[in-house]
């Protein structure tokens, strides 16, 4: 992996950015009657807007997107109106994801780097949420860490991969739509696991999700995207089918989350010259999967979860069947 140092910084930064967004926003919980609307607005800016922003990142890749994103997140420490806070935190989160995600996708031919980059985000959100609830947010140290991070990521060296001379200028609409649907399903599933112990085991559950994302990218580089996707989702179905305890439930979550970097890599294959758009297209799908949850659909039955996993398996198989599968 030629960009190992940049990847480590990017992954640590991903944790810090998501941690900061959670703490700076959630410490204001209860200060407005429009709290649900504020959460929707923040998530729209942070995830849905990555798609149009990704087009801008593809157009002007030399702009310091990641550093500017971190500084916007640091501005969340200021006493701002809540609507402005949701806007700058959301845009900062989006800019950081794309500012690291695009050069990473362009520079690394495999999936391992993607998995390692996206993995720490869930842990940052969970820990940031817990810290905000404890009302022990250390605003000044966190802000200083973010400013330091902005200085570091602005100077990250990316070593480009050797490209093939011919790049496919077309894309598979069917594959792109299938990948979009899979990410919607996995986003919704991530908020609605039918596990009665999930509230009491939030940290282990988060670690399983983060570990699955990292492991998925590594496994795909060893055994291929399609095989890893088929096997991981198939085993996830089996684990949830027999999930009467924490071990099988955590294993199911781990295996299910292995598909996230695989979807990102396969989408990049459809748009090899537009990594920013490919990344943002799937984060828009993440937002759509979150919408039913914020509207009150927060639990599904075990049978419904098995149907979601089976649908994900089928649709992901179609994405590989009809997509461009070159590296």
TrEMBL record:
Q: Organism, per UniProt?
A: Holdemania filiformis
Q: What is this protein called?
A: MFS transporter
Residue intervals passing through the bilayer: 6-26, 38-57, 63-91, 112-132, 138-158, 170-189, 201-223, 235-256, 276-298, 305-323
Q: Which UniProt keywords apply?
A: Membrane, Transmembrane, Transmembrane helix
SUPFAM superfamilies documented for this protein: MFS general substrate transporter
InterPro entries the record matches = MFS_trans_sf
